[in-house]
Amino acid sequence: MNVLFLCTGNSCRSLIGEAVFNHLAPSGWRAISAGSQPTGKLNERALALLAAKGIPTAGYFSKSWDALPLVPDIVVTVCASAAGETCPAYLGPVLHTHWGVDDPSHVVGPDAEIDAAFEQAYAILRARIEAFLALPPDLLQADRARLKVELDRIGGIGG
Known about the structure:
Elements: E1 2-7, H1 13-24, E2 30-35, H2 44-52, E3 74-77, E4 95-98, H3 111-133, H4 137-142, H5 144-154
Parallel strand pairs: 1-2, 1-3, 3-4
């Protein structure tokens, strides 16, 4: 199972999704992240947060969806469209779901407030990924329509 976490810049939320998924997923499952307009660098606070959680990020980089090393089975967009962001639309024949998360890199204020925003984005994505990984294996393989319903439901967790 290959999962693509997609947002515009591929520097923060999609990176967190990729790293957490790969940290928790069973053998043979893989997440990648990409952006429609990648920034070219990963957010330092996101990297520090993941390191503090014991989640490796070695080899990760900000990349375009035009150069994916694999074809995803599922695409998860993580832009918070309710906050005025426009999520990119992946144009492949794959299952799509939207797990909008506010971008903590846009928070302005004291360090404690910014850190709290990163913690919240991490907690939301982690809870959703854990819920996804807890789905029954037969659902993941056999019933795409029901899987789509479950993925969309999961997108409401913690948000």
